Amino acid sequence: MTKQPTSMYSVIVPVYNRPAEVEELLASLSRQTARNFEVIIVEDGSTVSCKDVVVKYAADCNATYYYKENEGRSIARNYGMERARGNFFIFFDSDCVIPEDYFEKLNCMMAEKPYDCFGGPDAADESFSTTQKAINFAMTSFLTTGGIRGGKISMEKFTPRTFNMGFDRKVYDSVGGFREMFSEDIDMSSRIRLAGFSIGLYPDLPVYHKRRVDFRKFFRQVYVFGMSRITLKLLYPGSLKLVHCLPAFFVLGVIAMTVLAVFVSPWWLLPLMIYFFAIFCSALSSTGSLVIALKAIPASVIQLGGYGLGFIKAYFLKIILGRGRDQAEEIALRKGK
Question: Staple 155 to which of 6, 146, 162, 208, CB 3.0 to 4.6 Å?
């Protein structure tokens, strides 16, 4: 790749009590083969500071450290954008590791097919635990999420997410910053699309995303994702698609098949067993690991079940009972432009 850089990127990362993760992230950024970026670390009221880590890598990856009182990751990202010097903003989560050719590839992709806003997929690095790799499979497989998180085949229009997302400064000037809410990146992408800016996927521009390190934390994360999808429906009435409802159908289907298996015939569990076998085979094929393939089954159940339960609860409370957004969400939404 020989094309010259066309943009100056400002990498903005909100942090809360994650110095070890920040060290891995900055170490990976210090090894980039293209150097046309700065890094802005915004410490959002942490009690365990990462300042020394940022200072350690400041020269290697043009990193700057800021501390602010705790207000949430969206406000921290906005704080970073206000201080950024680049003409393009890039967002990573603190638990990401960036392939060393990320910005070299991005320079070429932006030159060949530029977007006002872009996103890329996430993947599992070889150093990740088998549980992390199983969780990554559950969050990225077409069998579990329909490819909507950056898959080359997807059941929905691609929506960039802040573990691997970028947009032009003119987008920020027009649309404003992130709102402090769950699924704030989907909200931001929706506002960008409604404002008429172009959004695209760079499928060959992944980051290594650690996500949650155990199944309990993973369940809590996807449960919140499911609840926030109903908030997004209230904000954008046409945004709810069939693919978003599938985890809820999965939960209801598992309950129905279990009841029928107990009271009618065990054969009612056959469709579920076939689905789990398909997940196992797909994970085994993509990872080459029997252990990961076995763990992919509970990881997928948690991904679908946690999201589905959160979705059903929020749908019942906010749609059927008509409670709408709660007071905390209303306050958060007023913080956006």
Answer: 146
